Amino acid sequence: xxxxxxxxxxxxxxxxxxxxxxxxxxxxxxxxxxxxxxxxxxxxxxxxxxxxxxxxxxxxxxxxxxxxxxxxxxxxxxxxxxxxxxxxxxxxxxxxxxxxxxxxxxxxxxxxxxxxxxxxxxxxxxxxxxxxxxxxxxxxxxxxxxxxxxxxxxxxxxxxxxxxxxxxxxxxxxxxxxxxxxxxxxxxxxxxxxxxxxxxxxxxxxxxxxxxxxxxxxxxxxxxxxxxxxxxxxxxxxxxxxxxxxxxxxxxxxxxxxxxxxxxxx
Amino acid sequence: xxxxxxxxxxxxxxxxxxxxxxxxxxxxxxxxxxxxxxxxxxxxxxxxxxxxxxxxxxxxxxxxxxxxxxxxxxxxxxxxxxxxxxxxxxxxxxxxxxxxxxxxxxxxxxxxxxxxxxxxxxxxxxxxxxxxxxxxxxxxxxxxxxxxxxxxxxxxxxxxxxxxxxxxxxxxxxxxxxxxxxxxxxxxxxxxxxxxxxxxxxxxxxxxxxxxxxxxxxxxxxxxxxxxxxxxxxxxxxxxxxxxxxxxxxxxxxxxxxxxxxxxxxxxxxxxxxxxxxxxxxxxxxxxxxxxxxxxxxxxxxxxxxxxxxxxxxxxxxxxx
Amino acid sequence: xxxxxxxxxxxxxxxxxxxxxxxxxxxxxxxxxxxxxxxxxxxxxxxxxxxxxxxxxxxxxxxxxxxxxxxxxxxxxxxxxxxxxxxxxxxxxxxxxxxxxxxxxxxxxxxxxxxxxxxxxxxxxxxxxxxxxxxxxxxxxxxxxxxxxxxxxxxxxxxxxxxxxxxxxxxxxxxxxxxxxxxxxxxxxxxxxxxxxxxxxxxxxxxxxxxxxxxxxxxxxxxxxxxxxxxxxxxxxxxxxxxxxxxxxxxxxxxxxxxxxxxxxxxxxxxxxxxxxxxxxxxxxxxxxxxxxxxxxxxxxxxxxxxxxxxxxxxxxxxxxxxxxxxxxxxxxxxxxxxxxxxxxxxxxxxxxxxxxxxxxxxxxxxxxxxxxxxxxxxxxxxxxxxxxxxxxxxxxxxxxxxxxxxxxxxxxxxxxxxxxxxxxxxxxxxxxxxxxxxxxxxxxxxxxxxxxxxxxxxxxxxxxxxxxxxxxxxxxxxxxxxxxxxxxxxxxxxxxxxxxxxxxxxxxxxxxxxxxxxxxxxxxxxxxxxxxxxxxxxxxxxxxxxxxxxxxxxxxxxxxxxxxxxxxxxxxxxxxxxxxxxxxxxxxxxxxxxxxxxxxxxxxxxxxxxxxxxxxxxxxxxxxxxxxxxxxxxxxxxxxxxxxxxxxxxxxxxxxxxxxxxxxxxxxxxxxxxxxxxxxxxxxxxxxxxxxxxxxxxxxxxxxxxxxx
Lengths: 266, 321, 710
Prior knowledge:
Strand order of the largest sheet of chain A: 9-8-7-10-6-1-4-5-11
Oligomer: heterotrimer
Structural class of chain C: mainly alpha
Largest interface: A-B, 81 and 95 residues
Strand content of chain C: under 5%
Largest sheet of chain A: 9 strands, mixed
Helix content of chain C: 40-55%
Largest sheet of chain C: 5 strands, parallel
Strand order of the largest sheet of chain C: 1-3-2-4-5
Shape of chain C: elongated
Distance between the termini of chain C: 81 Å
Order of helices and strands of chain A: EEEHEHEHEHEEEEHEEEH
Strand content of chain A: 25-35%
Number of helices of chain A: 6
Distance between the termini of chain A: 65 Å
Structural class of chain A: alpha/beta
Number of strands of chain C: 9
Number of helices of chain C: 28
Number of strands of chain A: 13
Radius of gyration of chain C: 31 Å
């Protein structure tokens, strides 16, 4: 039994960031990298299935990223993943989520897992597409935004609930193997102590190239993407009128606004 | 000029309002006035949705009969692919919604069409489509284009584009969708029970709290404040996820929309896009946050950068307890 | 010298049949054998623990232990009555024991082997007197202890435990109480029968001048003898009484000795052992996880070192740690005493049998008998009040931290704590702010602060998380910068090169993250050029001073109070006007109790012209604000009292108090909140010492917070 979990190392912006010279991305010096928050949940869901089952389940994490992504993969190994795979090639630079999905699908064809989990979206660019596009390339059944999952490893189907707008849950049944994208809050992700992260350094990270996956440079990068970045810029921000002054002055103004607009008795 | 195709979204018998926003967006996408805008309605009884989408700007309604009444990713995917194949629209508009999360990328990937999601602005520059979306947690804007793509699929952000107001009488045609094996089957809908029968969607004055309140013990303080100022207490997702307030009090994309709200005071809420989705339409938003760079200030009318506890205490003193 | 038949002495075994004497010796050997076996079982128990990290200075340690024991310094501290009474018991017992040993030496060793006898004549008479007095001392001490337990009933001797509910199997402590009383009564009966025996012998031998004439050299016995005779006892009955009492007293004493290793009495040996092994930096410098160790932290009872297992046996349930603990004081499910007693009970149950049980049965975590629960361990503030006050050098804090390490490995902690640790790992600070914002507080200053990464400085200022990011504390930080600039100190900071020093991360039990932080900071410090480090944060001070050397970072570091004091004394900072305020000073745990930094802040207050009224719990006995041990990153249970509130009430009892002075960023945060929460806002204010110094220097921008209530 094997579960494949696709993870991403996302980037957050540091203070006073600057846009790169080519105008298409932020200067790497100002990017703070970490494991995507959604992936904590999808990995945890895989670990729960692994630990609940009697039969052995192998949890493999895969990430499309450059060498710095190893840090995030180590965290996954520290949390109990059995193996980690990283795919990188210079040609992958500039890929959108669809191109990345093509790579993930190739890994899935190689690994032949029983299920593939991904996060609903990544916290940096939030395409919310990678998981489902991967399913398309594999032609596997797929479902998105899961907040509840009942699945026995090797089962022919799984029952899940997806969270709709307004909080309503939609319960559905899906044929397996399938690709599922996992939403925040489905479980409580475990803590990976620094010690376990350090010890996970002993577990190997398999690094694959495009060749290993029978992919051509044209399958990825800009040519393999369905959109192309023209430019990135900082939008004009905030129209809020800031209320200045001491705490008393600010609170007084706010109280005035409330009384005026909400008509509540004083 | 092959036309613009809008895919309508419905749920449990109702066409969702975002569909009309897509129609509104389609208007500004016409490159020439004659370019046709078609709205496709998918479902077991698509004819029933026709009146809801018969608005100004819609030239044609396509009814696509499917086996399943509720969302079925495989059926939707097959139907939309067939529609694109048959009609060859240059632009396909979908909402950036939970349903779309389930199939839009598959349509784009399999058809090799141009594709971008969570788009809040788009237009044509020298004949080429350019779409704008957010990046790095909505801190930057990213412009994308789709070189050499004949068909481009855009998933548009809800609550941005203006729906048309006027009614119209578009022609209605049925479209035969190819059968698709149902690999995902709908079972039931589960309402999240309201622990306290408060309805955020009808509240006119909401005081909402977010992660900035720190600990669960502090919820009480703001509950008292809300009561004193006459507001309904609401919250952002982290508060509801942690169980500090019932889910019925959550405002946001996966919570409630503050539809009737006129005054929204957000305390300790940073303004994640999902939360904004539920309240940014409110006419007067006052945000209180210790972080001057919090996104909430971009949608607020008034802002206070400060300690929410100090402001709360000082504010409380202006109202009889 | 040989036996002098004319010299006065006591004839041992007088009138005993040889068989009786033989029986006595057999019983005596049996008692000693049982004693030795008991000791063997205990030593075997300790050896089942892991290796201990004890440095080799055995002689110095022995000397220190002997000094401590003879002076009774640690028992008399903060409880003079107990100290006095225990001194009586101790010296009385020691003298009586030495007395018996002396007789044995003369009668059983030197006599038979070398024909030497010294226990006679003048020596014998003084011996008798001293021992009689010893018995009186012992009796006095015992009687006071009985009165203390039975009538005074001080709260610290209430064994009710906060970490169990009624109905739990190990909730009931009546077994301990019975043992305590049995101990007191047994000793009392031994002494009493000893005197009675003495008296009976005198009555029996009243006709013998060499006995009767010297009777007043045993004053207590003689007095009793008079009483017996007055009651009409004849010499013959005296003899019978004497024989009976001789056996009773002797057998009881031998039984007592045999049972030493099996009862509370063993503290005679274990307390001394624990004191010899004392590590004066036990809580200030926590032990590293050994490289080869499989598990992080203590999960099984055998994960504790033999030193720790020995010290568990040293506990006499005196209750001083229970009384000093801030968590216990607010009703949290933690008492340091009960952590030690639980582990001891667990060790006794599992490690005293011939074979070691299965490892699974050795797990000390949980809610079963002798186990320690998660809530108990997480309640600790690592303030070391327990370690500091323990008379027998038990080191509770490392025990708790080692058990926390296991909880952290398994992620068993409050979700907010979990998040904070992840935040610290990601951003190097507990606020989740970008590294570049660390020095944002410097922007408000009218001068530039040197970057110690780029240029050499005299003084490297290690600012700390709270002082860098917390708005209220930023004002204090800016205040110190202003003072240092005024005094012409050449100082700089590390800007983004500084991360959280790691003191509290370590005390939470995240040793891996601590290593990352320490290594990173040491790297930054090593690359910079400076003479000394100064810090406003006592927590950073403690870990850099005491723990960084273990990771390769050895620096000269002081807390700002000693630096500022020096600047004032050298006239580099001139006081424009004395403040004349009525203040009290809260000793921060990590500066005061941890590192003995009591005097500098007080001297500064004196120079500032303030009238210092000490709180009852001050200096080494200062009461923790409650933020330590990572508790500031965990929410407090709703409805429970908090240590900071408890402390505020203590301060509020000082009449006409104007300022509550602190010198730690966490204290400032905790106590300003507590001031409001306890309803004392308006009565007095909370100020950081730096703010007072600035005010005294006449700086108008001092204290941006509302003016001091003058």
